[in-house]
């Protein structure tokens, strides 16, 4: 005997299948010839955005709307390309969704706006800017560009970012940095956790700040950096033998158990870690 619960489950599955089929049928392809260092912006209220490098000088976008309640519009002005998902009357988070699959020349700078994402970009050399609310943001294998991410509560993960100028601002989302190096790396969060795993590069300035969130940095023993860490109300833990400034710090400035300051190795990079009530952990891998 088929129960009402089972009928409801079947209905949900069928509705999902119909939605996916409709999106596949409504796919649109946009192609633009791009010059060196082109600029691409995508404004998408609902749905994923995925950006990868192309093997040509073209920007290729495949947009998949989930219903006729949303329209995709594309324009090009010289070397600037813009796409937008325009919601029509009656559009919801489901019917207003558009998924974007994008290929761009690797030196293209991209600006991606989304409410709930997810957003993914990889193997690019231009600037990458992400503005979102709750979207899951994943950026990997970027080199040489500026990386800016502004989010409310969405988690942010950066992996293998080389020689980048990185600025991450989050209200409540956790931020994870894996092998992220560059001349300037700054993460600011109100209540999200910040996790850094890497070697802090060789000549960079790193600043990790959270108001109530915990901050953890896992660093190899060979890393060289100058560090100043302080939590006003939270505990701190340091696994590195520090020299130099640590010996001259006064109790009024760096309270024992809630702060540490000093040099590991040759102090190639500057590292500042601050939180008001979160915990700080500097761990040696």
Can you walk me through this structure?
This protein has helices at residues 4-25, 245-248; strands at 28-33, 39-44, 49-53, 58-65, 70-77, 80-87, 98-104, 109-114, 119-122, 128-132, 137-143, 146-151, 156-162, 165-170, 175-180, 184-189, 194-197, 205-210, 215-219, 225-231, 236-238, 259-264, 269-275, 280-284. It is mostly beta strands. A hairpin with a 2-residue loop joins β5 and β6 (80-87). It is elongated, with a radius of gyration of 23 Å. Mean pLDDT is 88; it is low at 11-16, 18-22 and 246-254. The strands form 2 sheets. It has a 12-stranded mixed β-sheet. Strands 5-6-2-8-10-12-14-16-18-23-20-22 form a 12-stranded mixed β-sheet.
Describe what is shown at a glance.
About 10% of the residues lie in helices and about 50% in strands.
Feature tags:
285 residues; mainly beta; 2 domains; 12-stranded mixed sheet; 2 helices; 24 strands; 9% helix; elongated
Itemize the secondary structure elements and their pairings.
Elements: H1 4-25, E1 28-33, E2 39-44, E3 49-53, E4 58-65, E5 70-77, E6 80-87, E7 98-104, E8 109-114, E9 119-122, E10 128-132, E11 137-143, E12 146-151, E13 156-162, E14 165-170, E15 175-180, E16 184-189, E17 194-197, E18 205-210, E19 215-219, E20 225-231, E21 236-238, H2 245-248, E22 259-264, E23 269-275, E24 280-284
Parallel strand pairs: 2-6, 2-8, 3-7, 3-9, 8-10, 9-11, 10-12, 11-13, 12-14, 13-15, 14-16, 15-17, 16-18, 17-19, 18-23, 19-24, 20-23, 21-24
Antiparallel strand pairs: 1-4, 4-7, 5-6, 20-22
